[in-house]
From TrEMBL, chain B:
It is an enzyme of class 7 (translocase). The gene is ctaD. It holds the Pfam family COX1. The chain crosses the membrane at residues 39-60, 80-101, 122-144, 164-189, 201-228, 248-272, 284-308, 320-342, 354-380, 392-414, 426-447, 467-490. It catalyses: 4 Fe(II)-[cytochrome c] + O2 + 8 H(+)(in) = 4 Fe(III)-[cytochrome c] + 2 H2O + 4 H(+)(out). GO terms for cellular component: plasma membrane; respiratory chain complex IV. This is Cytochrome c oxidase subunit 1. Keywords: Cell membrane, Copper, Electron transport, Heme, Iron, Membrane, Metal-binding, Respiratory chain, Translocase, Transmembrane, Transmembrane helix, Transport. One of its GO terms (molecular function) is metal ion binding. It is a multi-pass membrane protein. The lineage of its organism: Bacteria, Pseudomonadati, Pseudomonadota, Betaproteobacteria, Nitrosomonadales. Pathway: Energy metabolism; oxidative phosphorylation.
Length: 156, 530, 495
C-alpha cells in the first residue's frame, strides 16, 4: 500500500506498507479464541483424570503463538520516504529495527530494474544502494517510481 | 545525466527464480508450496494404494464363509491398519496437498507463510508411514486393536502398538504444523481487497478445518500418550484394576475422532463449492450461508462425540442429549446440499469429469448423510452400532464423500498444475467405474448390518454369504478402477493438449489468472481484488 | 447368488431381524419411519437435481441465470428440516427411556465377557445360583478351510455348547461386565446391545414374547477370536424353564467337587485336557506352541516347567500388560487340573502335580493356609497384581491417585478381612498405608496415614473392635516404578 502526502512544491512524503490482510487486533482475537477452546478442552479432560491432553495443548498453543508473533513482527514493516528541499530521507522499519538513510537530493539516482516477474526500485548515491518499495505491488511501484522520478528531475 | 537509470541486465542477475536445486535435492529441500503440494499428493496416493491393498485382502477373506486367506489375528491387523492408513495417510495428506497448491494461488499470496516449516511438516509424513507400515514386521505384527485403539485391548498389543503410537504422534505434529501454516497464511496473506467474505469457499473450509485440527490434535496426542504410559509406565488411566476407566479412553478418542470426521469432509465441501459454479456457469448460491453452515458443522462437531458410544451404557439423559445434538448436524449439512442444487438450477450445465465427480459426490454423500441421521437415532444405533451398517455409512461419507471430492478437485486443477489437459474419455471411464463399483461394494453392506453382521470379523454366518460375495467383487472392481486414475495423471504429466490460463471457460478465481502450468513463483507482488 | 436359500426363513435379508421384544418392535418401526421419511426427502431433492441435469444443460441451449441468493428460500430450508427432525426425535425419545428402564426385573443374569466366550451367572429370580459358560461349538476344522457345504447350516458360528436359557414373557435384566477387554453382548432380535466393560457393571433388559432360539455375537472388537464368541439364547415356556432349572441344580449337586479330594496324576491330566480345550486352546493352541509372540508357547516354557507356585500364580492372576488374563473364575479343580496337564503334556514332563486344595490355599493367601505341597509353600499372593478381592489376609487395597477415600472396589476385601477377624476372635491385624513417589514427601506421608485410617474406619464400621487393629508407621515411597502397586494399604496379620 502506498500513502502519498504532498507538501507543496518542495517536498512530499510516501509511506509504503506491507500488505497485511488482518489487523493485529484480529490476529490476537483469533489466537484468543483458539487458545480458549484448546485450554477448555484440556482442562475439561484433566478434571476427568485424563490430564495428558493439557500439556500437548500447551505445547501446541506456544507453537501457534510463536508462529503468529514471527509473522506479526513484520506485519507493521514500512518504508517512509520523505522528500525534503535538499535531501531524501528513507526510514525503513524491519521487525523491531528502524533505520534512517539520508540521501542528498541532488546526488541520488533512482534505479529501476525490469525483471520479468516484477519491477524493482532502488536509490543509489555515492556507491551506496538501498532497495525501496519492497512492500508494494507492481502498480504501486510504478506509481512510486513515477513520483520519485518527478521529484528528482525537478532537482536536476 | 538522468537521475533515473533503467538497469534490465542487472535485474536478471537478481532474479533468483532459476536457482532452485535439481534432482532429488529439489524435492527434499524444497520450500515451494507447489512442490510441497505435489509431494503431499503423491504421498497420499501411495498410501491410498497401500490401504487399498489391505482392503482388498480383507474383502478377499470375506468373499465366502470360513477362513481361507488370512488368520483372525492378521485380519484384525489389516482392518486396523487399513483405517489408520486411509485416514491419516491418504485422505488427510491429500487435502493438505490441495491446500498447499491452491490456497496461495486462490488468495494471491506468493507462498505459504512458513515455507521451511511447510517442508518439515511434509517430510515427517514418510517417517510416520514407515513406522506405521513397518509395524507389520515387528514381533507380534501390527496393532490389531482397530483404528480406534480402544483400551484395554490396545494395552494387550505387542511392539507394533508402540510404533503406531509414535507414528500417530509424528503425523499429529505434521498436521499441527500444516494447520498453523494454513491459518497464518489465510489470515495474513490475502491479496489486498480480498476480505474474508470474498475468499473462495475452499479457503474458508480449510481455515475452519485448520482451526478444528488445532483444537483436537492435542486430544489425540494425549489419548495415545496415556495408552503408552498405561502400557509401559504403570499408570492406570484406562485400567479399572488400578482405579482407571476404559470408557474414559473412548471419550477422549471420540472427542478427537468426531471433529476428525469433519476435518476429512469440510475441505471436500470446499472443493465441491468451487466446481459446481464453474460447470453450472452460475455463481455459487448462498455463499454466506455456506460459510455459516461450515462453521456450524465445526462447532456442533464438539458436542456430538458420544454418539459413537451409545452402547457403553451412558445415562438416558446423555443418550438423549447426544442424539439431539447429532440430529441437529443434519440442518447445516442439508443447507449445503440445497445450496449446491440451487447453484445447478437454471445454470448452463456441462459434465466434464470434475463435474461428474462433484454431482456424484452430492448424490452418494447424501445417502451417507441419511444413514448418518438414522444412526443418530439412539435406539436404532444400538441395533446397528458395530455392524456393517456403520461400515457402509462411513464409507459412503468418506469414500463417496472425501475421496470423490478429491478426485473432482484433482481433475479440476490438474490442467493448472501440469499445463496439459487430462484425457477426458479416460476420466469419464474412471468416474463411471468408481461410481458403479463403489455402490456395488458398499450398498449391500447396509443389508448385512441390518440383518446382524458385526464388523471386524474374519468369518461370518452363512446367511450373509451373498451380500459379502457381491461386496468383494465390487471392492476389486473399485480397487482396479483407481489404476485408471494413475494412468490419467501420468499421461497428463507427460503431455497432452495445452491448457489455457483459464482452463474452464467460466471458472472464477485468482488461480486462473496465472498461466498454465502455474509458474514456479506466482503472485510475488500481490494482485488486487476488486 | 440370490438363489441360495436363506437360513433365516422368517427374517428379511434386507431389514432388521424379526423383533421378538416390544423394544425391538419399536426400534423396527422407528427404522421403518425414518427410512420412509428419508426416502421421500431423497426423491424430492434429487428429483430437482436430476431435472436440472436434464433440463438445464448447455448442450440444450440453456443460458445460466445469475441470481445467487434468496433469503426466503434459505430460511425455509433451514427451518423445515428442524421440524422434520423434531418429529423424528419424539418417538425416539420415548424408546430411549423405555430401553433404559431396567427396574422390576423377574430374573437378573450377569453376562461376563471373556476372551473369547461368554459366562453367565443367574443372580436373582428363578434359577438363582446357576452358572454356565457358552463356548463356540462350531468345530474348528469347519472354520479353517472346511468345505463350503459343511458350513451350510444356519447356525454356523452362531452356536454354543451351553446356551443361555430364559423363560418367555419375563423381564430379564442382563448385567454385563468383562474379565479382560471390552466386549458387547448383542442379540439383534431383542434389540439389546450392551458393552461389557472390565471393572464396571452395566445393565440392559429384554422381555422375549416368543419362544425360540435367538442368536447374536460379541459386537465389540475384543482381539483375535472376536468373531468366534457367539451368544445363543433359548427362550422357553415357564414349565420348560422350571424343568431346566431343576436339572441344572441336580447336575450341579452331583458334580459338586469335594474340594479336599485328592486326585491322581492321570485323573488330573484328563480333567486338565478338558479345561485346556475349553479355556486355553484359542491362544496357546492345541500343540502348546502358542502363537508367538503375543501368545507364548507352553511346551517347554519356563513357567510350565519352573516352580509350580509361579505357574499357579500366573493362571490365577494373569500377567499384567499382556493378553494373559486372570482365570480366577475357574474352579479349584479346573485350575489344579489344567496346571498339572500343562506341566505333563507335550514335551513337558515335570512330573509334579497340584491338588484343588492347594489352589484354594493359593487363592486365600499361602501364609495362613497350610499347604501339603512343599513347592506351594512359597506361593506368595503378595505378588498378585490384581485387586484385593482375595478373601483373607494379607490384603492389599489400591487407591486412586492423590485420594485417601476407600474405592468402592476395595470394599469386598474389607468385608473378607472383617469376616476372617470375626471368625478368629484372637487374631489382630496391622495396617500400613503407602503412596507412590510423586509429590512431596510430607504430603505423601500424610496421604498414606489418611489411607490407613480410611481402612481402619471401614473395618471398624464392619464391627471390628479398634484394639484389634494396629496402625503401623505409614510409608511413602514403595513399589518401584509401579505406581499403581504403590498406592495401597496393606492389611497383615499382626506381627
Amino acid at each position: 500500500m502506498l500513502d502519498a502526502r504532498n507538501h507543496g512544491d518542495n517536498g512530499a512524503c510516501y509511506i509504503a506498507r506491507r500488505n497485511c490482510s488482518i489487523s493485529p487486533q484480529g490476529l490476537i482475537g483469533s489466537f484468543t479464541v483458539i487458545a480458549t477452546v484448546s485450554l477448555l478442552i484440556g482442562i475439561g479432560f484433566a478434571s476427568h483424570g485424563a490430564w495428558m491432553v493439557l500439556p500437548f495443548a500447551g505445547i501446541e498453543l506456544v507453537t501457534l503463538a510463536i508462529a503468529f508473533v514471527c509473522y506479526a513482527r513484520h506485519a507493521a514493516d514500512y518504508e517512509r520516504i520523505s522528500v525534503g528541499a535538499g535531501e531524501i530521507e528513507v526510514e525503513v522499519c524491519n521487525g523491531d529495527c528502524v533505520r534512517c538513510h539520508l540521501f542528498n537530493r541532488a546526488w541520488v539516482r533512482l534505479i529501476v530494474r525490469d525483471a520479468p516477474s516484477a519491477t524493482r526500485l532502488a536509490l543509489r548515491s555515492r556507491g551506496q544502494e538501498l532497495e525501496i518499495g519492497r512492500h508494494l505491488d507492481g502498480a504501486d511501484r510504478q506509481k512510486l517510481a513515477h513520483e520519485l522520478g518527478r521529484w528528482l528531475r525537478l532537482t536536476a | 545525466m538522468s537521475s533515473i537509470a533503467h538497469d534490465p541486465a542487472h535485474g536478471h542477475g537478481h532474479d533468483d527464480h532459476a536457482h532452485h536445486p535439481t534432482g532429488i535435492m529439489r524435492w527434499i529441500a524444497t520450500t515451494n508450496h507447489k512442490d510441497i503440494g505435489t509431494l503431499y499428493l503423491w504421498f497420499s496416493f501411495i498410501m491410498f494404494l497401500s490401504g487399498g491393498v489391505m482392503a482388498l485382502t480383507i474383502r478377499a477373506e470375506l468373499f465366502q464363509p470360513g477362513l481361507q486367506i488370512v488368520q483372525p489375528e492378521f485380519f484384525n491387523q489389516l482392518t486396523t491398519m487399513h483405517g489408520l492408513v486411509m485416514v491419516f495417510g491418504a485422505i488427510m495428506p491429500a487435502f493438505v496437498g490441495f491446500a498447499n497448491w491452491q490456497i496461495p494461488l486462490m488468495i494471491g499470496a506468493p507462498d505459504m507463510a512458513f515455507a521451511r516449516m511447510n517442508n518439515w511438516s511434509f517430510w515427517l509424513l514418510p517417517v510416520a508411514a514407515i513406522l506405521l507400515i513397518g509395524s507389520f514386521f515387528a514381533p507380534g505384527g501390527a496393532s490389531a486393536a482397530g483404528w480406534t485403539l480402544y483400551a484395554p485391548l490396545s494395552v494387550q498389543m505387542g511392539m507394533g502398538m508402540d510404533m503406531l503410537i509414535f507414528a500417530v504422534h509424528i503425523m499429529g505434529a505434521s498436521s499441527i504444523m500444516g494447520a498453523i501454516n494454513i491459518v497464518t497464511t489465510i489470515l495474513n496473506m490475502r491479496a489486498p481487497g480480498m476480505t474474508l467474505m470474498k475468499m473462495p469457499l475452499f479457503c474458508w473450509t480449510w481455515l475452519i478445518t485448520a482451526y478444528l485440527l488445532i483444537a483436537v490434535m492435542p486430544v489425540l496426542a494425549g489419548a495415545v500418550t496415556m495408552l503408552l504410559t498405561d502400557r509401559h509406565f504403570g499408570t492406570s488411566f484406562f485400567n479399572a484394576a488400578g482405579g482407571g476407566d476404559p470408557v474414559l479412553y473412548q471419550h477422549v478418542f471420540w472427542f478427537f475422532g468426531h471433529p476428525e470426521v469433519y476435518i476429512m469432509i469440510l475441505p471436500a465441501f470446499g472443493i465441491i463449492s468451487q466446481i459446481i459454479p464453474t460447470f453450472a456457469r452460475k455463481p455459487l448460491f448462498g455463499y454466506a450461508s455456506m460459510v455459516y453452515a461450515t462453521a456450524s458443522i465445526a462447532i456442533l462437531s464438539f458436542i456430538v462425540w458420544a454418539h459413537h458410544m451409545f452402547t457403553t451404557g451412558m445415562p438416558a439423559a446423555g443418550q438423549l442429549f447426544f442424539m439431539y445434538a447429532t440430529m441437529l448436524i443434519a440442518v447445516p449439512t442439508g443447507v449445503k446440499v440445497f445450496n449446491w442444487i440451487a447453484t445447478m438450477w437454471k445454470g448452463s450445465l456441462t459434465f466434464e469429469t470434475p463435474m461428474l465427480f462433484a454431482v456424484g459426490f452430492i448424490f452418494v454423500f447424501t445417502i451417507g448423510g441419511f444413514t448418518g441421521l438414522i444412526c443418530a437415532i439412539t435406539p436404532i444405533d444400538v441395533q446397528i452400532q458395530d455392524t456393517y451398517y456403520v461400515v457402509a455409512h462411513f464409507h459412503y461419507v468418506l469414500v463417496a464423500g472425501s475421496l470423490f471430492a478429491l478426485f473432482a478437485g484433482a481433475y479440476y486443477w490438474i490442467p493448472k498444475w501440469t499445463g496439459h489437459m487430462y484425457d477426458e474419455g479416460l476420466g469419464k471411464l474412471h468416474f463411471w467405474c468408481s461410481m458403479v463399483f463403489f455402490n456395488v461394494t458398499f450398498f449391500p453392506m447396509h443389508f448385512l448390518g441390518l440383518a446382524g453382521m458385526p464388523r471386524r470379523i474374519p468369518d461370518y454366518a452363512v446367511q450373509f454369504t451373498d451380500f459379502n460375495a457381491i461386496a468383494s467383487v465390487g471392492a476389486f472392481g473399485f480397487g482396479f478402477s483407481q489404476l485408471i486414475f494413475l494412468v490419467i495423471v501420468l499421461k497428463c504429466i507427460k503431455g497432452g493438449k495445452k491448457a489455457a490460463a483459464r482452463v474452464w471457460d467460466s471458472a472464477d478465481g485468482l488461480e486462473w489468472t496465472v498461466p498454465s502450468p502455474a509458474p514456479y513463483h506466482t503472485f510475488e507482488t500481490a494482485p488486487v481484488v476488486k | 447368488m440370490f438363489l441360495a436359500s436363506s437360513a433365516y426363513a422368517t427374517d428379511s435379508r434386507y431389514n432388521l431381524q424379526t423383533p421378538v421384544t416390544q423394544i425391538a418392535q419399536q426400534v423396527y418401526d422407528l427404522h421403518t419411519i425414518m427410512m420412509v421419511v428419508c426416502l421421500v426427502i431423497f426423491v424430492a431433492v434429487f428429483g430437482v437435481m436430476f431435472y436440472s441435469i436434464y433440463a438445464h444443460r448447455k448442450s440444450k441451449g440453456a443460458v445460466a441465470a445469475q441470481w445467487h441468493e434468496n433469503t426466503t428460500v434459505e430460511v425455509l430450508w433451514t427451518i423445515i428440516p428442524v421440524f422434520i427432525l423434531l418429529g423424528m426425535a419424539w418417538p425416539a425419545t420415548k424408546t430411549v427411556l423405555a430401553m433404559k428402564d431396567t427396574s422390576n426385573s423377574d430374573i437378573t443374569i450377569k453376562a461376563t465377557g471373556y476372551q473369547w466366550k461368554w459366562g453367565y451367572d443367574y443372580l436373582k429370580g428363578e434359577g438363582e445360583g446357576i452358572r454356565l459358560v457358552s463356548n463356540l461349538s462350531t468345530p474348528r476344522d469347519q472354520i479353517d478351510g472346511g468345505k463350503q457345504s459343511e458350513r451350510s447350516q444356519s447356525s454356523y458360528l452362531l452356536e454354543v455348547d451351553d446356551p443361555l436359557v430364559v423363560p418367555v414373557g419375563k423381564k430379564i435384566r442382563i448385567l454385563t461386565t468383562a474379565n479382560d477387554v471390552i466386549h458387547a453382548w448383542w442379540v439383534p432380535a431383542f434389540a439389546v446391545k450392551q458393552d461389557a466393560i472390565p471393572g464396571f457393571i452395566r445393565d440392559t433388559w429384554f422381555r422375549a414374547d416368543k419362544e425360540g432360539i435367538y442368536r447374536g455375537n460379541c459386537a465389540e472388537l475384543c482381539g483375535k477370536d472376536h468373531g468366534f464368541m457367539p451368544i445363543e439364547v433359548h427362550v422357553v415356556s415357564a414349565e420348560k424353564y422350571a424343568t431346566w432349572v431343576a436339572e441344572r441344580k441336580k447336575v450341579a449337586a452331583a458334580v459338586a467337587e469335594d474340594p479336599s479330594k485328592k486326585y491322581t496324576l492321570a485323573e488330573l491330566k484328563a480333567k486338565g485336557q478338558k479345561a485346556y480345550d475349553a479355556n486355553c486352546v484359542a491362544c496357546h493352541q492345541a500343540s502348546g506352541k502358542g502363537l508367538a509372540p503375543a501368545f507364548p508357547a507352553l511346551d517347554g516354557s519356563k513357567i510350565a516347567t519352573g516352580p509350580i507356585a509361579e505357574h499357579v500364580g500366573i493362571v490365577l492372576n494373569g500377567k499384567a500388560g499382556t493378553a494373559m488374563a486372570a482365570w480366577k473364575q475357574l474352579s479349584d479343580t479346573e485350575i489344579a487340573a489344567v496346571v498339572t496337564f500343562e506341566r505333563n503334556n507335550w514335551g513337558n514332563a515335570v512330573g509334579d502335580m497340584v491338588q484343588p486344595s492347594d489352589i484354594k490355599a493359593a487363592r486365600g493367601g499361602a501364609q495362613l493356609a497350610a499347604s501339603p505341597m512343599p513347592a506351594l509353600a512359597k506361593e506368595a499372593p503378595t505378588e498378585s497384581a490384581t485387586t484385593a478381592a482375595s478373601d483373607a489376609l494379607p490384603a492389599k487395597l489400591y487407591f486412586r491417585v492423590g485420594k485417601a477415600a476407600l474405592p468402592a472396589d476395595a470394599m469386598d476385601a474389607v468385608k473378607a478381612v472383617a469376616e476372617f477377624l470375626a471368625a478368629k476372635p484372637e487374631a489382630k491385624v496391622d495396617i500400613t498405608g503407602y503412596t507412590d513417589q510423586s509429590g512431596s514427601l510430607d504430603k505423601n506421608l500424610e496421604l498414606a496415614k489418611e489411607r490407613a485410617k480410611a481402612v481402619r474406619d471401614a473395618l471398624a464400621g464392619a464391627g471390628i473392635a479398634e484394639d484389634r487393629i494396629h496402625m503401623k508407621k505409614p510409608e511413602a515411597v514403595t513399589g518401584g516404578g509401579d505406581n499403581r502397586e504403590a498406592r495401597r494399604v496393606e492389611i497383615n496379620p499382626a506381627s
